[in-house]
Structures
1.
Amino acid sequence: MGQQPITFLRQVVALCTYPELLESPHFPADAKERAQRILLYCGGQSLGSYSASQGLNCIRQDVAKYMETRDGGVPAESDNIYITTGASDGITTIMKLLVSGEGRMRTGVMIPIPQYPLYSAAISELGATQINYYLDEENGWALDKNELKRNLSAAREYCNPKVLCIINPGNPTGQVQSRKGIEDVIRFAYEEKLFILADEVYQENIYSEDCKFHSFKKVLYEMGPEYFSTVELVSFHSTSKGYTGECGFRGGYMEVINMDPEVKAQLEKLLSVRLCSPVPGQVAMDVVVNPPKPGEESYELFTLEKMKVLHNLAEKAKLTEDVLNTIPGMHCNPLQGALYAFPRIFVPPKAIEEAETHGMVPDMFYCMKLLEETGICVIPGSGFGQKEGTYHFRMTILLPIEKLKVLLQNVKNFHTRFLRKYT
Ligand SMILES: Cc1ncc(COP(=O)(O)O)c(C=O)c1O
């Protein structure tokens, strides 16, 4: 999509991969220092060695420091940090650990609807029971504690609900949850003894001036020791999003708190089956949590590149929201964060009938028509889940801005033609 990699990240990974470059005058001293430090922690000082299953020690320490700074001093321990192969690996491993039982005692996992389909796929692979809770579209895709309660009580009739997943900022919905919403969820999890999975991979992707990222960990801490010492929480982060977008490196980490030591021992056993996450991805993760500091040689260029990516994404989020909301029969909630728009679309009854004759759900029919007529590929809302009778699609805001403008104009023209044809 034209987004340029962050130079410092690539330099550190290159230096670790090919240490002869440490002699090269073309690399800055701070990148060399980082690489040398990481290599000291690698077996045989080589990136080609397996690391400890939990990840390289120095990188886990850097993650802990990053979290402490991010959360205004809330303590983080490197022992609770596990370096993963992207966030996906962490999420599926934790689910595997938590799912058990048969029949009515089978583990139930609460997931938001709309959701990122990794969750429904992992639940289905593990044979767990999926418990949907709907995000409140009319209220900017907010979390609604009554909705959580209602669905939990209903699910207790047929499974054993144990896990509550939250994606913040949201994919595909692009909202940033309020502090109050997060507190409500934590209180709910505390009362109902649910294990929280907080997917926070978009924590750096916040665009709206009046929104702030609140980590579950920080809110939990600030709710007091009664909560902070009991609520079981795992949070996930990744190199794939933010301003780095290095999804191919497969870097990530999770922090696990309040897990029973015996369960934690099983987690470590599970993780050791896959030996370790790829060490180059661990190095990329290290740069995300330990970027150049003020006064270091690379600081200026790094800050420039980071700000450029984030400003550009913020501009594209605003443009996308604004243009989509000028289209009659379409409504897009504020794009506060993450990398997507998830507008609601009006599909006329005649189009719904025609979709049926093609054996398609209405939003799939809409997206196929859009693809055929314009070459634009978006994902139907039914792929993420949506309230019955509502239709959406998801698009990313990643395209370069000039192309994005053309794309949005084409979507607008298509939607107008579609409504004219079927109304
Ligand atoms: C909400 C969410 N969680 C997890 C992931 C997976 O990220 P990773 O590449 O770190 O495995 C994605 C990727 O799009 C995502 O949107």
2.
Amino acid sequence: MSVPLPRRRLLGAAAATAAAAALTTATPAAAATRSADVIIVGGGLAGLTAARAVVAAGRSALVLEARDRVGGRVLNLPLPDGGWTEGGGEFIGPTQDRIRALAAELGVATFPTYNAGKNLLYKDGKRTPYATDGLLGAVPPVDLAGLANAATVQATLDNLAKQVPVNAPWTAAKAQEWDRTTFDSWLCLNAPVPSARFLFDVATTSIFSAEPRELSLLYVLFYIASAGNESTPGTFERLTDTGSGAQATRFTGGSGLIPQRLAAALGERVVLNAPVDRISYGGGTATVTAAGLTATGRRVIVALPPALAARVDYDPLLPAARDQLTQRMPMGAVAKAIAVYPTPFWRSSGLNGQVVSDTGAVRSTFDNSPPDGSCGALMGFLEADEVRRLDGAAESEVRAAVLADYVRYFGAQAAQPTAFLLQRWDNERFSRGGPVGYAPPGVLTQYGPALRTPVGPLHWAGTETSDYWNGYMDGAVRSGERAAREVLAAL
Ligand SMILES: Cc1cc2nc3c(=O)[nH]c(=O)nc-3n(C[C@H](O)[C@H](O)[C@H](O)COP(=O)(O)OP(=O)(O)OC[C@H]3O[C@@H](n4cnc5c(N)ncnc54)[C@H](O)[C@@H]3O)c2cc1C
């Protein structure tokens, strides 16, 4: 589709293009052999951060990345005019200190997510714009009984989360009780008012891209505790909020610039098109094979989500606890749909582009326009049961469903975008879903310690192994830094 958008459109295309051009990563030659102190499996934020830290400490590192690009769940998507938008991880917020610091070191600037004007609640067929600067903040104005119930539930979740140590949630005093409970059954007891239940259902799918019935209560409490840093306890609101929460800020040029710049600095230490299929280890070394490349190292950092780490063949077999952990942490089901328009037309109706809805393929949206508003971009999430319902649907069907939702929310103008981008993470061979590999009941208490415990020379990174901001870009960076500290201490 051709789109008459001016240059300088979404998110500083020029900067993004320059960084991509600087990427001098290698592709494995047939039957090639490489060696390094540390072999890193996976060139997402976790793996690249780990490599950067290893190299900074004067050790050699080699990153093997399966795709023909770095970044994993972080991905800049090109627009027809040469601009960019983001198909994966995008927002950052307060207490996400490590991704913020990394971006600053790499010269990637930030700007506030568009948040001026009213949010939109779409419920029971009714469309209600609402201001977010009142007493309720961004909480959608459901009935009073629902609001009262929701306030109690939120306070209770925050209090229970304070009892969960982020580095070992399985040691919480009530870990067993909470880990045999789904979040759904807990909500059935604690959020009996239907409108309150609606608020937590929509928040849950927005945060995890999974339904409450799929999640362990212990895992949800851990995730809330994890939404903070060493000096600021996590809260439920910080997970859901835009203005002062995890969706507050975006990156100029797109989040994809961060992995691109990390890889550019690592140069030939990053090998693309290298899907690792086997890791053999023992006797103080490890051998990693990928598409005809054999890499040997003294340490290996596997920087993959558990579900992907499970697809690698380990020789000798990993301890059962680690192997079975990776059989039990599925990825959420998520897609992002971005519709581009000549202008952010909803702004002139006093709307900020953010929707909370009880109906449709897309039930939460954001204004993803570039910082100068030179065109309009509406980004919607398709999550959990809603995206599963569209499994196997043609892109044209998904597009029709998404645009029907956008028309219900923002009016007839939304029907005719100049570009439409769909990024389905459940169809990606090297992601299999997103945003995070989550823990169903019984996993953290039985297998949690295997998340990070090294096995011989093998160390584990990836956002799923992080204490703070688990599931987020910040958690990925933290995990890479932690794994690098581990291997450097061991070398
Ligand atoms: C739709 C969506 C929206 C999101 N929104 C946000 C957000 O707004 N803010 C936020 O902070 N986070 C967000 N996230 C989450 C964030 O993107 C992730 O937490 C983060 O990018 C994970 O990084 P990682 O390095 O741990 O894993 P990954 O990015 O998954 O990296 C793993 C890498 O390993 C590669 N790989 C896989 N298998 C192999 C193999 N066998 N051999 C070699 N390489 C392999 C993959 O290709 C990938 O590059 C979102 C994610 C998604 C999908």
3.
Amino acid sequence: NAGHSHIDDVGDPEVGEMLAAGFTSSADENLLDSARTMIICVPTPLSDEGGPDLTAVKGAATTIARHLHTGDLVILESTTYPGTTDEVLRPLLEQGSGLVAGVDFHLAFSPERIDPGNPHYGVANTPKIVGGLTPGCAQAAAALYGKFVDQVVQAKGTREAEMAKLLENTYRHVNIALVNEMAVFCHELGIDLWDAIDCAATKPFGFQAFRPGPGVGGHCIPIDPNYLSYKVRSLGYPFRFVELAQEINDRMPRYIVERAQQLLNTHGQALKNAHILLLGVTYKADIADQRET
Ligand SMILES: NC(=O)c1ccc[n+]([C@@H]2O[C@H](COP(=O)([O-])OP(=O)(O)OC[C@H]3O[C@@H](n4cnc5c(N)ncnc54)[C@H](O)[C@@H]3O)[C@@H](O)[C@H]2O)c1
């Protein structure tokens, strides 16, 4: 409201434009009574046991339910396991409001796909997936996003939209783990993996380059695939690819310390009391997100 942005990708001039156009932010839940659309984009972290922590999603749903009216549209954007919109959100909204989803109000899931720090792709030119509880719910959500997003893609339902987001993140998680594992043995074999990746990346089809690093950071890659493996475990078996990728990526910080130790050794120095400069504290360049660093 003061016109200052604390978000890297949103500048003060953009906030100024929004304020001039009538935007206002508030923590007063009573304002929900005058809203036709409620979008939930609260954190979905892991619990102490490593499973999904949906406290904030449930909290937001309970708040919204107290102010839900006939004809309203509720959209969940937080990354979560398939089934959350239908099995967790819908009952809380229905019980708290006495209304029926898909009949009295619209309910949809639409994954947030923002790539922080990406100068080319923002909310307008990144296709937006929407999955509705009913076709009418999907249409209502698509109509909303269609006002400011170039392309809206309708999923079959909420579960498919939830799954699409986790597929995207799991794909990256697994491929980062693949090159991280390769980095360890390529070092032993005297192969420059970065050069090999650059060569492979010249193939115009069928290959996407991922590069090794000291582990994974941020919210999406280290956390979101756990939401999916949690859901799969409820079937009685593990999601082996995700769990293996987790294990390999989790090992990287320790590996980096070992390599640093070896380098110091070659200079006759001990790790203890050594002064080490870390370049790049966040998980990628030009962003301030230190979560899971
Ligand atoms: N940051 C990204 O680039 C990104 C990209 C894709 C998906 N996501 C997903 O979006 C979701 C939110 O992530 P984020 O990075 O924006 O988190 P964030 O922590 O930056 O913002 C979450 C906001 O929710 C508010 N909040 C918390 N509990 C609440 C409650 N009970 N009621 C109302 N508001 C509440 C917090 O005050 C905060 O302003 C997560 O599920 C994340 O996985 C984030």
4.
Amino acid sequence: MIYFDNSATTEIYPASLDTYVKTSKRVFGNPSSLHYLGVQANRLLEQARKQIADTLQVSNEEIAFTSGGTEGDNWILKGTAFEKRSYGKHLIISSIEHPAVKKTAEQLTHFGFEVDQAPVTEEGIIDVNQLAELIREDTILVSVMAVNNEVGTIQPIQEISTLLEKYPKIHFHVDAVQAIAKIDTQKWLTPRVDFAAFSAHKFHGPRGVGFIYWKKGRRLQALMTGGGQEGEQRSGTENVPAIVAMARALRLTFEKINQRPEHLNHLKDALMKGLSTYDKVTSFFSRRK
Ligand SMILES: Cc1ncc(COP(=O)(O)O)c(C=O)c1O
């Protein structure tokens, strides 16, 4: 079988699955427990955090674990709304966001928040000038995905970052679930990006696990309250085997990208530009005949 649905989900790498099974069997302590097994689990958890942070070239404290992309998007939108409700009630999302962002924003409208959707061009790319016109005094968040999950269009995160330099109080969230390990990190994790959401099953890791990038100094309210894990920000006993297996999958994915031959990078860039790239792909193949 040739599997072509990798934007929906990917097959777990055997090495990631192996890590999951071994960690489940051998390091089953609760990372919050003070005994040896707990300390061991906590050490693995922190190693996984460091590995992910190093891969993205951010610091360890800027990575928080979640159950996947949907939770990450929910956390960032609702956490911003709850945190900043006394400053403003206006959010901007793009009109082509994943339902994890769109439906969350819509839910917030039932709690007194106002949401505007930035339109896209015929090619499915956000018009940055139109986005700029939507910004208000009371805007608290702009949320734009880096790569669209249906047509693969790459959104102008660098241009939006430049625009938002003028509005330092607005939280800038990037849903990077489809972008990580597909396009260069600096294209979507710019210094102006405050938050980003990720999901392991899109890069050959296990399902039901992910993480968010949360820039140091920015504030979010917790979505999950309880035992105070993740520095009181995301309660619930950590899924250590899945987190460690996710870190391994991410490392392997980045290693594979770095080994990718030049001509495949060309094809990848062409494919990622969405439907309009059909011509480029065919011309690429005709050049290689
Ligand atoms: C762009 C985007 N955001 C969020 C999600 C949700 O991620 P998860 O399946 O981990 O909840 C997906 C999944 O398809 C996605 O493509």
